[in-house]
Write a structure and sequence with these properties.
three-stranded antiparallel sheet; 3 strands; alpha+beta; binds flavin-adenine dinucleotide
């Protein structure tokens, strides 16, 4: 149902979808992009978004997953087994938006819990991943 609505909307607006396309090269003069498997697509205006990764230094440190994101408890934002480490923002593997707004609200949780840690109290503040 959703696919057929999408298909008819694209046909109506003359939009062509090429799925599973891994961008391999751009010929800006001819205005053609090519995938690694050789599929070519013409374009008028190219807006290309690269895949997101975390930092290489985090991968090399052993604290991050292969994508460079640091696995944390999604509520306390602490990596497993590290009770004096907290992570916020795009560097976490929390299943929420990679957004400044999320990092902003996570900072409130970290503030509460770092103070609690210093005072020897339990980690009581909990993040819910919200952005608004
Ligand atoms: C084009 C664009 C538009 C966006 N628009 C919005 C929006 O409208 N609303 C919204 O909520 N979010 C938006 N975002 C997302 C938002 O910018 C990020 O989610 C947010 O900045 C993440 O904050 P952060 O502190 O985790 O990481 P960052 O803001 O990326 O901060 C990381 C910092 O670490 C520094 N750093 C990196 N490596 C090292 C190192 N080895 N040593 C020391 N320092 C290092 C970097 O220089 C950087 O200052 C947008 C992002 C982009 C790219």
């Amino acid at each position: 149902m959703a696919t057929s609505i999408l298909t008819s909307a694209c046909e109506e607006k003359n939009i062509k979808i090429t799925a599973n396309f891994a961008l391999g090269s751009v010929d800006a003069e001819k205005k053609v992009i090519a995938s690694y498997d050789g599929t070519e697509v013409n374009y008028d205006l190219l807006a290309s978004i690269p895949p997101n990764f975390g930092s290489e230094v985090m991968i090399e440190s052993g604290i991050a997953d292969p994508m460079g994101y640091i696995p944390v408890d999604k509520e306390t934002l602490q990596p497993e087994g590290r009770d004096n480490v907290w992570v916020l923002g795009d560097g976490t593997n929390v299943p929420t938006s990679k957004a400044g707004a999320v990092a902003h609200f996570q900072a409130d949780i970290l503030h509460e819990n770092i103070i609690a840690y210093i005072n020897g109290d339990a980690q009581h503040a909990r993040s819910d991943g919200h952005a608004l």
